[in-house]
Design goal:
123 residues; 5 strands; globular
């Protein structure tokens, strides 16, 4: 069986201290609403690395919260759009290794514009 992947479109600050060159292990899966998460948590989870701005969560309501741990014992979270199939997939993958894939290289983009910064009022 091939190793599962957890994919990010950009480098996020939360990944800076994670050993992404080795598999990470899925430790927790839960279904929740974005309105139940604090603004501080949303800022932590969505902050881009090396740039100003955050991943845009507008339009998200129900989400899947995942917690992973790397080989060094460092933990990080990620939020994924909810659907029953994804929830079942992640629940059946608890304790399994995942390869971290980041689609965009770790660089500063001169064309980046922050269009969404989570705040307490947006939750």
């Amino acid at each position: 069986m091939s190793i599962r992947q957890i994919t990010f479109t950009k480098w996020l600050r939360k990944l800076e201290n994670i050993a992404t060159h080795e598999p990470v292990t899925l430790m927790h899966v839960s279904h929740t609403r974005i309105s139940r998460l604090s603004g501080e948590f949303l800022r932590y989870d969505t902050k881009f690395s090396g740039e100003r701005g955050y991943f845009n969560l507008e339009g998200y309501d129900h989400i899947i919260l995942l917690l992973f741990v790397d080989a060094e014992g460092s933990m990080f979270s990620t939020l994924r759009p909810y659907n029953e199939g994804k929830l079942n997939y992640y629940q059946s993958s608890l304790g399994q290794p995942f390869k971290v894939v980041v689609r965009e290289p770790l660089t500063k983009s001169p064309h980046f514009i922050a269009i969404f910064a989570p705040s307490e009022s947006s939750i």
